Amino acid sequence: KQEVTQIPAALSVPEGENLVLNCSFTDSAIYNLQWFRQDPGKGLTSLLLIQSSQREQTSGRLNASLDKSSGRSTLYIAASQPGDSATYLCAVDAGNMLTFGGGTRLMVKP
Amino acid sequence: DGGITQSPKYLFRKEGQNVTLSCEQNLNHDAMYWYRQDPGQGLRLIYYSQIVNDFQKGDIAEGYSVSREKKESFPLTVTSAQKNPTAFYLCASSIFGSSNQPQHFGDGTRLSIL
Question: What mean pLDDT comes out for the span A7-36?
């Protein structure tokens, strides 16, 4: 059974820092890996989707990488801002069903 | 604007009562999903439906039921058999069979016990 782990569970950084969030998964038979953002009390907003044949995707200050063979993905956030404060969730898609990690709660301090 | 609408935003359940959470989408997506989120944790799949009049159990279906009579609607009933229903419930939809399209989420319903 697929298991997804996110490290760290929580992270606090000063504004302007570059940071990396980690996601690992146990079964490499995936179609894609998705990164989401969740603000308190809200639903999930899709940030990036990396298909299994791709190595990375970029959107603005965000860059996500995927190493399927080692079961790892990273989300890199450049020049962090207070507005980036949220919980970040990764999920792997093994056939129209997502398995989620527990999330990383990020706080960016002004 | 296309999207997913969940209602109500907050719901309270009395012991022994069934309650129904609404989820409507106007994205013309075939697939719809219900997830449960407990505090500080990720999402767990309750039920999903890939086509009208068909649905499958997810990892934690016990104590829940669903129906899919219309493409746009996928209501979730939390039955009295669900002994620990307090959680944040999220509905999502996606294009079925596409590996390059993300799931889209509603804003959730928070269910509490009275």
Answer: 96
